[in-house]
Design goal:
globular; alpha+beta; five-stranded antiparallel sheet; 6 helices
Length: 208
């Protein structure tokens, strides 16, 4: 009897070469939440599909006979978000948002809601929305959806001079080309939100 397999629709959050034979894939699915799996690197089959960062893919996973490692038997991209990597700021902010998910998703119970938010956020990055605003909204909504008191605790601490613009940023769809002053407010709010997260939550933030 073969090893058990499952097929999941998942987002690829990070891909890391492990040795010469495997890619380590950090993925997020609506069913299983965040997990790590290994995909063998084929040196002979040049037609094999290479996982691309921020893909949504259908992934067939096989459980190792011993231990908890899962291996990728088949990887079928459903949506490739390759426009993110073509603009440095998009890639920078998308990777930061991805890192926050990787660090914290294993402790977040609502995988379905997190997966839907992550897909919407990466779609926005990919479509050319202002990356500073997309990242801010993504983190704010992640905190709100997971039950952290961003409205009750963080919002009252936002400086009065930023609140009017902050309301517009958080309540309206991210624009494609936000003016420089709006981008500057978005950056200031992100820094302020990060400080609050470090002080008031047990969530982890990427270093640097």
């Amino acid at each position: 009897m073969g090893a058990p397999t499952t097929t999941e629709r998942a987002l690829l959050l990070r891909s890391t070469l492990t040795g010469e034979s495997y890619l380590k894939l950090d993925i997020l699915s609506a069913e299983q939440g965040a997990c790590v799996c290994l995909k063998r690197v084929s040196r002979k089959n040049t037609q094999a599909v290479t996982p691309d960062l921020f893909d949504t893919a259908e992934i067939e996973l096989e459980q190792a006979r011993q231990g908890t490692t899962r291996f990728v038997r088949d990887y079928r991209p459903l949506l490739r978000r390759d426009a993110i990597g073509k603009v440095y700021k998009r890639l920078q902010h998308a990777a930061h948002f991805s890192q926050i998910i990787i660090l914290n998703a294993p402790h977040m119970p609502d995988a379905d809601t997190l997966f839907a938010l992550a897909e919407r956020s990466f779609d926005a990055f990919n479509s050319g929305k202002t990356p500073e605003i997309v990242a801010l909204k993504g983190i704010y909504l992640l905190l709100r959806d997971e039950g952290f008191p961003v409205n009750e605790s963080w919002w009252p601490q936002v400086p009065n001079g930023l609140r009017s613009t902050a309301k517009d940023i958080l309540n309206q769809p991210a624009p494609s080309d936000a003016p420089a002053d709006i981008v500057d407010v978005g950056k200031e709010l992100m820094e302020h939100l990060h400080h609050w997260m470090r002080r008031e939550t047990d969530l982890m933030l990427p270093k640097g």
